[in-house]
Amino acid sequence: xxxxxxxxxxxxxxxxxxxxxxxxxxxxxxxxxxxxxxxxxxxxxxxxxxxxxxxxxxxxxxxxxxxxxxxxxxxxxxxxxxxxxxxxxxxxxxxxxxxxxxxxxxxxxxxxxxxxxxxxxxxxxxxxxxxxxxxxxxxxxxxxxxxxxxxxxxxxxxxxxxxxxxxxxxxxxxxxxxxxxxxxxxxxxxxxxxxxxxxxxxxxxxxxxxxxxxxxxxxxxxxxxxxxxxxxxxxxxx
Length: 238
Hints:
Blueprint (H helix, E strand, L loop, with lengths): L2 E10 L2 E10 L7 E5 L7 H12 L3 E4 L12 H12 L2 H15 L10 E6 L1 H12 L5 E5 L17 E7 L7 H14 L3 E6 L12 E2 L4 E2 L2 H19 L1
Parallel strand pairs: 3-4, 3-5, 5-6, 6-7, 7-8
Antiparallel strand pairs: 1-2, 2-4, 9-10
Helix pairs in contact: 3-4
């Protein structure tokens, strides 16, 4: 068993995107799991997540949401990259949808089922994938943003949805969690929400250590979240 990686170039309209594929070359075609990035873009964190998914039997695909593999190195750069995408939800949906289309039909996936996971900004991306597309098995948001899509006021969601949330996340207050639950119920989807107490934003990221900004790693919440994530993927992609 050897995990292989390669870059996959694909497009969304006139924008060239550079994703990173990881797969076990001892296995035949396997279901793909997209990894939507934090606001920093497709960094080593997302690429490592793709490798982790390959290690447990899927094809991992780290998604480029900005174009040409762009990444941000500080808060200002990350904000400048994310703002044009997060403020245009139709663009965001097209961009994450392009990744789902790109991964289908690759030799490593051969039109197997597609799921998606996302971290922080990426959590919003995969939730919008579920809101906009009916051809996704399921999505998982890890400390993701939960605000509804203004261009899809009443989505019907076929994908299964799992949200892994730090209850003390200052970027997603409790009232937004309640509104999200109402939206998912109205959308008719099979949804779950796990809220971890005493837990802030970015709790799966070992480098997160900025209490004033609300981003702090939690080994306990991270362990629980990954266990829930793996169980969910096994359920929807078996």
